[in-house]
């Protein structure tokens, strides 16, 4: 994914989380391109990615529209993703990761450090982190060598807010968002360390813990509706509460 397409994807995802669109609203390429100051091609590709993430759906009249989903759908998918990614990390730790895979993972860690280790994060920093984060999780899944796990993960990526970067908070949406992203990236470092040291149980536990950032963002919005209306108004797309 090139930088312009990634930037447009980040902007559109953020607009959804901020409640810019209502369920059933049609998302047309030309108005969106004008709104974002981009050409139609990256907007079209970004919409395809958002459909794959389960945030939007095809419209009966053509193109795409916003969809509504339940908080339980999101919570269940997030939990299952943690279990799958944790097991994939365990397999890598126990079976051994290739030198090339470890180099690629360390490249991701370096890119993430550059994005989050600064006083403030701008849109370009956020876009860079999202791109790195997606690649990091893809490397874990591809590197574990378990085809069945990858197939299940592909299915989960189609659930709303369940993809690795869908629930990452932007600093403009939540004051502590930057700190949460730093914590998430510290977990990336710990996962790679556990894989390198062959610590399967630790790698699995870290993988399962890692999705807590996404779950906390969901709980934050559902448990504090008066604040969520201002900070994450996109949660109006979510119907119902999660089970205790």
From TrEMBL:
Top-level lineage group: Bacteria
CDD domains reported for this sequence: WHTH_GntR
Annotated ranges, domain HTH gntR-type: 2-69
Protein keywords: DNA-binding, Transcription, Transcription regulation
Protein name: GntR family transcriptional regulator
